[in-house]
């Protein structure tokens, strides 16, 4: 019985201590005189107390808490009303009680999403830089008529982050600056401006000096105006080039307006800090065939094996073009099917050296999304990024299961990202002098490759752009296509950029481009076919049909994969003048960056007529040079060839001449002539003489 009484007494002390701690941090005065046996008991007890009870009889901002000051507002925005520093101590053995908590006023009585780490706070402590940290929901007010009016969150630091705070803040002057809080409602994250500076001095009794006989904890709250609210917009750029392995460079960019006063007061923009979650989609199918679309779309991103057994589908995606064979197309095909192929199966059609195709199967299980062109040729059909986003969200809602960032099914994304990038959470500090690189491919054919209709050479051209760049009026001259090509942005976004620049000019602002990442967009032609299960013929008919269609360039679909950036958020802008850096926190809503889908590039995009003429000229010059260098060797051969050609050309004419001469020699014997023959008689005789009758071979050349 004594043990039970002691246990009950300790629990009472723990609860009392927690309540007093809460009153201390809000009211700035109280005497904390009781502690639980364990540190975990104190903190857990405090976290379990309801926010409504914590606020009663407290003081906020120097004023006694009055519920009338926090009415329901139809258009009101959530507000941070208090940051609680719980049991700070400079003694290492007492620091396990330490924590930071916030109280939020919710004027619309909205139901915030609570089981998520997307609720975040952006703050700095001491002399640290701004960063974001998850908010763990503890509870909300449940009093009648005030349900959900107030929320209580714990800032969920990692152990390393907690240690860093304790080692960084000044023990006698602990400063926490909060620029904004991000809260989610039905999956939509919104950041709300806070701009509050909390300065804590003194200690709760028992956490400061062991000789202290009372609490000395005091909190002062100040507002600040050194922050920027940004309206961030996004674009992307895919340079034109030649189709090669389905690879296409993609430059990812955002742009926003910055008040000019920050450039005037703090210097050039030297660094931008941002964060996002990075993932790579499963293949996205765009098809001309309505039947195929309906069947695949009905899966909502699930495995193609879930298709009904009455019809078998096969999709061949040719990532590689024919770069090695001069006489035929041969390639490697990724594929997906509801027919039971084995990964690595190989099929041969015809002879590879004549007109055959080798197809090596590498399985992918599902499509993240599928779109129907409405019968329009797929090479002319693209998908808007917002349309793709809604399709991914819809499929994710249908699939369920493990979610990425609470709303995208993990099954719609690969379990990897491209080489050199981080899967999941990324935090980047991007300096103004950094460069973002883009590339495009040019495939060329030499004279022999052109003659034999096969093979090509690939030249990869690289270019780079500054990571941070101001947009000037000179950048906006020319057509939309020229502006897009100069700034490396999507042509469809040029009008939006111009509108932002117009707003900036009106509001004394400057538009800034932030090129934050370069990735590879994968897009390749696809042939698809289907067959009833009684005619599938071991799958060979499906493969053969697709291969023949591919050989005839009869593609009826294309497949694409791209990198997406979820909850993209700019944390701060850094300005520098005379070597002095100034950090300005940023308030902006996290955004899901999902770029549009565009058709595959054309083969030999840059092999234009002018370049072909140039190659022909080069080839002619090469032939002349070869002739000059090897003339001594080639001269006898060429001489014999010329004589032969002359003989062939002149032989018919010689034959005709000889025939004429033979006819004139066959004339009758001439009559006796005397010396009194006139010229007229001679001419008459010559005209009547049968020259063909003369045997010219018997003449010795001596007779007259």
Question: In a nutshell, what does this entry contain?
Answer:
By secondary structure, the chain is α+β, with helices and mostly antiparallel strands.
Number of helices, where a helix is a run of at least 4 consecutive DSSP H or I residues: 14
Instruction: Point out poorly predicted stretches.
Output: 1-25, 27-39, 322-330, 351-355
**How many strands appear in the DSSP assignment?**
32
Structural class label = alpha+beta
Percent helix among the residues?
25-40%
CA radius of gyration is: 43 Å
How would a crystallographer describe the biggest sheet?
A: 11 strands, mixed
Q: Provide the residue-averaged pLDDT.
A: 83
Shape: elongated
Percentage beta strand: 25-35%
Distance between the termini: 168 Å
**Oligomeric state of the chains?**
single chain
Description:
It contains 14 helices and 32 strands. It is elongated and about 170 Å long. The strands form 6 sheets. Strands 12, 13, 15, 16, 17, 18, 19, 20, 26, 27 and 28 form an 11-stranded mixed sheet that branches. An 8-stranded antiparallel sheet has the order 3-4-7-6-5-8-9-10, with helices on both faces. Strands 11, 14, 23, 29, 30 and 31 form a 6-stranded mixed sheet that branches. It is an alpha+beta fold and 704 residues long.
């Amino acid at each position: 019985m004594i043990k039970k009484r002691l246990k009950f007494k300790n629990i009472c002390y723990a609860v009392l201590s927690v309540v007093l701690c809460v009153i201390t941090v809000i009211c700035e005065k109280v005497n904390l005189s009781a502690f639980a046996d364990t540190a975990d008991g104190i903190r857990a007890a405090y976290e379990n107390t309801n926010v409504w009870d914590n606020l009663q009889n407290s003081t906020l901002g120097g004023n006694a808490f009055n519920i009338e000051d926090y009415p329901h507002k139809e258009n009101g925005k959530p507000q941070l009303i208090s940051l609680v520093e719980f049991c700070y101590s400079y003694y290492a053995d007492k620091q396990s009680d330490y924590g930071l908590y916030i109280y939020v006023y919710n004027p619309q009585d909205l139901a915030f999403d609570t089981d998520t780490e997307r609720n975040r706070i952006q703050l700095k402590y001491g002399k640290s830089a701004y960063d974001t940290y998850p908010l763990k929901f503890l509870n909300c007010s449940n009093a009648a008529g005030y349900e959900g009016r107030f929320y209580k969150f714990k800032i969920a630091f990692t152990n390393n982050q907690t240690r860093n705070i304790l080692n960084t803040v000044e023990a006698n002057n602990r400063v926490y600056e909060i620029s904004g809080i991000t809260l989610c409602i039905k999956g939509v994250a919104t950041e709300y401006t806070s701009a509050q500076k909390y300065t804590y001095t003194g200690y709760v009794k028992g956490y400061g000096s062991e000789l202290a006989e009372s609490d000395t904890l005091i909190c002062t709250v100040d507002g600040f105006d050194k922050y920027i609210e940004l309206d961030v917009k996004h674009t992307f750029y895919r340079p034109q080039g030649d189709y090669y392995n389905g690879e296409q460079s993609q430059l990812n960019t955002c742009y926003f307006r910055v008040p000019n006063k920050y450039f005037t007061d703090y210097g050039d923009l030297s660094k931008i800090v941002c964060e996002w979650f990075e993932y790579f989609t499963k293949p996205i199918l765009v098809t001309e065939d309505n039947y195929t679309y309906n069947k695949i779309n009905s899966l909502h991103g699930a495995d193609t094996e879930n298709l009904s057994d009455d019809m078998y589908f096969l999709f061949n995606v040719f990532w590689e073009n024919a770069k090695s064979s001069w006489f035929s197309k041969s390639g490697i095909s990724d594929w997906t099917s509801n027919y039971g192929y084995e990964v690595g199966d190989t099929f041969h059609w015809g002879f590879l050296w004549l007109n055959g195709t080798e197809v090596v199967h590498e399985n992918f299980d599902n499509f993240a999304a599928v779109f129907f062109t409405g019968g329009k040729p797929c090479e002319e059909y693209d998908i808007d990024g917002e349309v793709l986003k809604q399709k991914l969200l819809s499929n994710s809602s249908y699939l369920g299961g493990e979610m990425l960032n609470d709303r995208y099914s993990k099954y719609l994304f690969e379990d990897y990202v491209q080489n050199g990038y981080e899967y999941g959470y990324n935090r980047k500090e991007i300096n103004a002098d950094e460069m973002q690189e883009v590339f495009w491919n040019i495939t060329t054919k030499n004279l022999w490759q052109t003659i034999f209709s096969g093979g090509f050479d690939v030249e990869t051209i690289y270019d780079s752009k500054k990571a941070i760049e101001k947009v000037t009026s000179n950048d906006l001259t020319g057509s939309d296509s020229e502006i897009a090509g100069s700034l490396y942005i999507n042509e469809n976004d040029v009008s939006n950029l111009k509108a932002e620049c117009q707003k900036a000019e009106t509001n004394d602002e400057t538009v800034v481009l932030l090129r934050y990442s370069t990735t590879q967009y994968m897009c390749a032609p696809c042939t698809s076919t289907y067959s009833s299960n009684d005619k599938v013929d071991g799958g060979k008919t499906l493969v053969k049909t697709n291969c023949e269609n591919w050989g005839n360039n009869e593609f009826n679909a294309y497949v694409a994969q791209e990198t997406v950036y979820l909850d993209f958020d700019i944390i701060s802008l850094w300005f520098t003048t005379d070597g002095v850096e100034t950090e300005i926190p940023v308030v902006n809503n996290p955004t899901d960056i999902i770029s549009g889908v565009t058709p595959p590039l054309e083969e030999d995009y840059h092999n234009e007529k002018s370049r072909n003429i140039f190659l022909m000229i080069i080839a002619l010059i090469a032939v002349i040079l070869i002739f000059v260098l090897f003339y001594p060797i080639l001269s006898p051969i060429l001489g014999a060839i010329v004589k032969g050609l002359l003989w062939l050309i002149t032989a018919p004419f010689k034959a005709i001449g000889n025939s004429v001469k033979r006819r004139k020699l066959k004339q009758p014997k001439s009559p006796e002539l005397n010396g009194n023959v006139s010229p007229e008689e001679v001419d008459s005789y010559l005209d009547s003489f049968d020259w063909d009758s003369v045997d010219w071979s018997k003449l010795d050349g001596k007779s007259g």
